[in-house]
Protein backbone atom coordinates (compact mmCIF):
# COMPACT_ATOMS: atom_id res chain seq x y z
CA UNK A 1 0.00 0.00 0.00
CA UNK A 2 1.21 3.46 -0.87
CA UNK A 3 0.28 6.56 1.10
CA UNK A 4 -1.78 8.79 -1.17
CA UNK A 5 -1.25 12.54 -1.17
CA UNK A 6 -3.56 15.15 -2.58
CA UNK A 7 -3.97 14.99 -6.38
CA UNK A 8 -2.47 11.48 -6.51
CA UNK A 9 -3.91 8.23 -7.81
CA UNK A 10 -5.23 5.69 -5.30
CA UNK A 11 -4.07 2.08 -4.98
CA UNK A 12 -7.35 0.85 -6.49
CA UNK A 13 -7.02 3.18 -9.48
CA UNK A 14 -3.38 2.27 -10.04
CA UNK A 15 -4.16 -1.46 -10.08
CA UNK A 16 -6.40 -0.89 -13.10
CA UNK A 17 -3.77 0.82 -15.24
CA UNK A 18 -0.29 -0.09 -13.97
CA UNK A 19 0.33 -2.83 -16.55
CA UNK A 20 -0.55 -0.53 -19.47
CA UNK A 21 2.53 1.67 -19.11
CA UNK A 22 5.68 0.80 -21.05
CA UNK A 23 8.78 -0.02 -19.08
CA UNK A 24 10.68 3.17 -18.29
CA UNK A 25 14.11 3.51 -19.89
CA UNK A 26 15.08 6.99 -18.71
CA UNK A 27 16.65 7.95 -15.41
CA UNK A 28 19.39 6.32 -13.34
CA UNK A 29 17.67 4.19 -12.15
CA UNK A 30 14.43 4.76 -14.14
CA UNK A 31 11.78 6.67 -12.22
CA UNK A 32 8.76 4.62 -11.12
CA UNK A 33 5.78 4.94 -13.49
CA UNK A 34 3.37 5.58 -10.63
CA UNK A 35 5.56 8.37 -9.28
CA UNK A 36 5.73 9.97 -12.72
CA UNK A 37 1.99 9.62 -13.31
CA UNK A 38 1.28 11.14 -9.90
CA UNK A 39 3.55 14.07 -10.76
CA UNK A 40 1.63 14.65 -14.01
CA UNK A 41 -1.68 14.35 -12.16
CA UNK A 42 -0.49 16.90 -9.60
CA UNK A 43 0.37 19.27 -12.41
CA UNK A 44 -2.95 18.68 -14.20
CA UNK A 45 -5.02 19.24 -11.07
CA UNK A 46 -3.07 22.21 -9.68
CA UNK A 47 -2.51 24.08 -12.94
CA UNK A 48 1.05 24.86 -11.89
CA UNK A 49 4.03 25.28 -14.20
CA UNK A 50 6.35 22.34 -14.89
CA UNK A 51 9.15 23.92 -12.88
CA UNK A 52 6.88 24.06 -9.81
CA UNK A 53 6.44 20.28 -9.51
CA UNK A 54 7.27 19.30 -5.88
CA UNK A 55 10.75 17.91 -5.22
CA UNK A 56 9.33 14.59 -4.02
CA UNK A 57 8.63 13.70 -7.66
CA UNK A 58 12.19 14.33 -8.76
CA UNK A 59 13.48 16.76 -11.43
CA UNK A 60 10.69 18.36 -13.41
CA UNK A 61 12.68 17.73 -16.60
CA UNK A 62 12.34 13.97 -15.99
CA UNK A 63 8.57 14.28 -15.44
CA UNK A 64 8.20 16.35 -18.60
CA UNK A 65 10.25 13.83 -20.59
CA UNK A 66 8.02 10.97 -19.41
CA UNK A 67 4.89 13.01 -20.22
CA UNK A 68 6.13 13.65 -23.76
CA UNK A 69 6.93 9.98 -24.24
CA UNK A 70 3.46 8.84 -23.09
CA UNK A 71 1.88 11.59 -25.21
CA UNK A 72 3.79 10.76 -28.38
CA UNK A 73 3.82 6.94 -28.24
CA UNK A 74 0.06 6.74 -27.62
CA UNK A 75 0.28 5.35 -24.08
CA UNK A 76 -2.29 7.78 -22.66
CA UNK A 77 -4.69 7.16 -25.54
CA UNK A 78 -4.37 3.37 -25.17
CA UNK A 79 -5.09 3.54 -21.44
CA UNK A 80 -8.11 5.76 -22.07
CA UNK A 81 -9.45 3.37 -24.71
CA UNK A 82 -8.85 0.32 -22.51
CA UNK A 83 -10.78 1.85 -19.62
CA UNK A 84 -13.86 2.60 -21.74
CA UNK A 85 -13.90 -0.67 -23.68
CA UNK A 86 -17.22 -1.57 -22.00
CA UNK A 87 -18.87 1.79 -22.66
CA UNK A 88 -22.67 1.89 -22.70
CA UNK A 89 -23.54 2.86 -26.29
CA UNK A 90 -27.31 2.80 -25.82
CA UNK A 91 -27.40 6.57 -25.38
CA UNK A 92 -24.54 8.80 -26.54
CA UNK A 93 -24.44 12.51 -25.76
CA UNK A 94 -22.41 14.91 -27.90
CA UNK A 95 -21.45 18.51 -27.14
CA UNK A 96 -18.49 20.86 -26.82
CA UNK A 97 -16.99 23.16 -24.23
CA UNK A 98 -14.75 26.17 -24.77
CA UNK A 99 -11.48 26.58 -22.92
CA UNK A 100 -9.73 29.92 -22.53
CA UNK A 101 -6.23 29.91 -24.01
CA UNK A 102 -3.69 31.49 -21.66
CA UNK A 103 -1.22 33.92 -23.31
CA UNK A 104 1.63 31.45 -22.68
CA UNK A 105 -0.09 28.92 -24.97
CA UNK A 106 0.88 31.07 -27.97
CA UNK A 107 4.14 30.76 -29.87
CA UNK A 108 4.32 27.12 -30.95
CA UNK A 109 7.23 26.52 -33.33
CA UNK A 110 6.47 26.60 -37.03
CA UNK A 111 6.36 23.13 -38.51
CA UNK A 112 5.02 21.54 -35.33
CA UNK A 113 2.10 19.14 -35.68
CA UNK A 114 -1.17 21.07 -36.14
CA UNK A 115 0.71 24.29 -36.84
CA UNK A 116 -1.44 24.73 -39.95
CA UNK A 117 -4.44 24.90 -37.59
CA UNK A 118 -2.72 27.31 -35.19
CA UNK A 119 -2.67 24.44 -32.68
CA UNK A 120 -6.48 24.69 -32.53
CA UNK A 121 -6.41 28.08 -30.86
CA UNK A 122 -9.12 30.21 -32.44
CA UNK A 123 -10.56 33.66 -31.87
CA UNK A 124 -14.20 33.93 -30.83
CA UNK A 125 -16.31 36.32 -28.78
CA UNK A 126 -14.58 35.01 -25.67
CA UNK A 127 -11.13 35.79 -27.02
CA UNK A 128 -8.60 33.09 -27.87
CA UNK A 129 -10.10 29.71 -27.09
CA UNK A 130 -9.91 26.01 -27.85
CA UNK A 131 -12.99 23.80 -28.08
CA UNK A 132 -13.14 20.28 -26.70
CA UNK A 133 -15.72 18.28 -28.64
CA UNK A 134 -16.72 15.15 -26.76
CA UNK A 135 -18.98 12.13 -26.77
CA UNK A 136 -20.01 10.47 -23.50
CA UNK A 137 -21.88 7.20 -23.03
CA UNK A 138 -25.09 6.42 -21.16
CA UNK A 139 -23.22 6.52 -17.84
CA UNK A 140 -21.62 9.89 -18.50
CA UNK A 141 -18.18 8.40 -19.17
CA UNK A 142 -16.05 9.83 -22.00
CA UNK A 143 -15.84 7.87 -25.25
CA UNK A 144 -14.06 10.16 -27.72
CA UNK A 145 -12.62 13.66 -28.07
CA UNK A 146 -11.43 16.04 -30.73
CA UNK A 147 -10.14 19.61 -30.63
CA UNK A 148 -10.88 22.65 -32.78
CA UNK A 149 -10.43 26.38 -32.52
CA UNK A 150 -13.05 28.12 -30.42
CA UNK A 151 -14.67 29.74 -33.46
CA UNK A 152 -15.70 26.41 -35.03
CA UNK A 153 -19.45 25.77 -34.79
CA UNK A 154 -20.45 22.59 -32.99
CA UNK A 155 -22.36 21.22 -35.97
CA UNK A 156 -19.23 21.30 -38.17
CA UNK A 157 -17.48 18.74 -35.99
CA UNK A 158 -20.41 16.40 -35.27
CA UNK A 159 -20.10 14.02 -38.23
CA UNK A 160 -16.27 13.72 -38.03
CA UNK A 161 -16.62 12.99 -34.31
CA UNK A 162 -19.42 10.44 -34.65
CA UNK A 163 -17.72 8.75 -37.63
CA UNK A 164 -14.96 7.49 -35.31
CA UNK A 165 -17.54 5.38 -33.44
CA UNK A 166 -19.88 2.52 -34.27
CA UNK A 167 -23.18 4.21 -33.45
CA UNK A 168 -25.44 1.55 -34.97
CA UNK A 169 -28.52 1.11 -32.72
CA UNK A 170 -27.37 3.98 -30.50
CA UNK A 171 -29.45 7.02 -29.65
CA UNK A 172 -27.63 10.33 -30.11
CA UNK A 173 -28.58 13.10 -27.67
CA UNK A 174 -27.60 16.63 -28.59
CA UNK A 175 -28.86 20.20 -28.34
CA UNK A 176 -30.46 22.23 -31.13
CA UNK A 177 -27.10 23.22 -32.64
CA UNK A 178 -26.75 19.65 -33.91
CA UNK A 179 -30.15 19.52 -35.59
CA UNK A 180 -28.96 20.15 -39.13
CA UNK A 181 -30.27 17.99 -41.94
CA UNK A 182 -26.80 16.64 -42.75
CA UNK A 183 -26.24 15.43 -39.18
CA UNK A 184 -29.67 13.84 -38.92
CA UNK A 185 -29.22 12.14 -42.28
CA UNK A 186 -25.83 10.81 -41.21
CA UNK A 187 -27.27 9.37 -37.99
CA UNK A 188 -30.06 7.73 -39.97
CA UNK A 189 -27.54 6.29 -42.44
CA UNK A 190 -25.75 4.59 -39.53
CA UNK A 191 -29.00 2.94 -38.41
CA UNK A 192 -29.01 5.02 -35.25
CA UNK A 193 -31.63 7.27 -33.67
CA UNK A 194 -31.40 10.83 -32.45
CA UNK A 195 -32.97 12.91 -29.70
CA UNK A 196 -32.35 16.46 -30.86
CA UNK A 197 -34.90 19.27 -30.41
CA UNK A 198 -35.68 21.23 -33.58
CA UNK A 199 -34.92 24.93 -33.65
CA UNK A 200 -37.88 27.25 -33.19
CA UNK A 201 -37.56 28.53 -36.79
CA UNK A 202 -37.39 25.05 -38.34
CA UNK A 203 -39.98 24.57 -41.07
CA UNK A 204 -40.00 20.76 -41.04
CA UNK A 205 -40.39 19.77 -37.41
CA UNK A 206 -39.60 16.31 -36.08
CA UNK A 207 -40.55 14.54 -32.88
CA UNK A 208 -38.28 14.76 -29.85
CA UNK A 209 -38.54 12.75 -26.65
CA UNK A 210 -37.94 15.54 -24.16
CA UNK A 211 -38.03 13.16 -21.23
CA UNK A 212 -35.10 11.22 -22.68
CA UNK A 213 -33.45 14.48 -23.70
CA UNK A 214 -32.91 15.24 -20.00
CA UNK A 215 -30.20 12.57 -20.01
CA UNK A 216 -28.03 14.99 -22.00
CA UNK A 217 -27.05 16.58 -18.70
CA UNK A 218 -24.48 13.77 -18.37
CA UNK A 219 -22.12 15.45 -20.82
CA UNK A 220 -22.40 18.76 -18.97
CA UNK A 221 -21.55 16.94 -15.75
CA UNK A 222 -18.54 15.38 -17.47
CA UNK A 223 -17.24 18.76 -18.60
CA UNK A 224 -17.55 19.98 -15.01
CA UNK A 225 -15.47 17.01 -13.85
CA UNK A 226 -12.60 17.46 -16.28
CA UNK A 227 -12.50 21.20 -15.62
CA UNK A 228 -11.64 20.40 -12.01
CA UNK A 229 -8.25 19.79 -13.62
CA UNK A 230 -6.94 23.31 -13.98
CA UNK A 231 -4.68 22.53 -16.93
CA UNK A 232 -7.86 21.50 -18.76
CA UNK A 233 -10.01 24.39 -17.53
CA UNK A 234 -7.39 26.81 -18.89
CA UNK A 235 -5.10 25.97 -21.77
CA UNK A 236 -1.44 26.68 -21.00
CA UNK A 237 0.09 24.32 -23.56
CA UNK A 238 1.50 25.57 -26.84
CA UNK A 239 0.97 22.21 -28.56
CA UNK A 240 -2.55 20.89 -29.12
CA UNK A 241 -1.21 17.37 -28.56
CA UNK A 242 -0.07 18.31 -25.06
CA UNK A 243 -3.40 19.89 -24.18
CA UNK A 244 -5.27 16.84 -25.49
CA UNK A 245 -2.96 14.61 -23.43
CA UNK A 246 -4.11 16.42 -20.28
CA UNK A 247 -7.73 15.82 -21.34
CA UNK A 248 -6.91 12.09 -21.56
CA UNK A 249 -5.20 12.19 -18.15
CA UNK A 250 -8.28 13.78 -16.55
CA UNK A 251 -10.48 11.18 -18.25
CA UNK A 252 -8.28 8.30 -17.08
CA UNK A 253 -8.67 9.54 -13.52
CA UNK A 254 -12.44 9.64 -13.91
CA UNK A 255 -12.74 6.26 -15.61
CA UNK A 256 -10.49 4.50 -13.09
CA UNK A 257 -12.46 5.69 -10.04
> Rg from C-alpha positions?
19 Å
Number of helices: 10
Note the gap between the termini.
17 Å
- Which spans of ≥5 residues are poorly predicted at pLDDT below 50? none
- Rough shape? globular
Structure class:
alpha/beta
Q: Give helix and strand order, one letter per element, not per position.
A: HHHHEEEEHEHEHHHEH
Q: Care to count the β-strands? A: 7
Can you describe this structure?
With 257 residues, this protein is of the alpha/beta class. 37% of the residues lie in helices and 16% in strands. The protein has ten helices and seven strands. It has helices at residues 11-17, 33-46, 60-72, 75-83, 154-162, 181-189, 210-213, 217-226, 230-233, 240-256; strands spanning 91-101, 122-124, 127-136, 142-149, 171-173, 193-195, 234-235. Strands 1, 2, 3, 4, 5, 6 and 7 form a seven-stranded mixed β-sheet that branches. A hairpin with a 2-residue loop joins strand 2 and strand 3 (127-136). Helix 4 packs parallel to helix 10. The chain starts with 10 loop residues before the first helix and ends with a helix. 32% of the residues are buried. The mean pLDDT is 91.
Name its key features:
257 residues; alpha/beta
Amino acid sequence: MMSVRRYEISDEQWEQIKDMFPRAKTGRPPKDNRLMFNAILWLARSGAAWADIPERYGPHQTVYSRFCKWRDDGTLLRIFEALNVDADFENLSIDSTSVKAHPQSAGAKKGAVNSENNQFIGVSRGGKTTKIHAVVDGLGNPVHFTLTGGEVHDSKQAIPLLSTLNICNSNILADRAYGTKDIRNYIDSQRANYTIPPKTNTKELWDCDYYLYKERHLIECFFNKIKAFRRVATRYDKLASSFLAFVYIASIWILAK
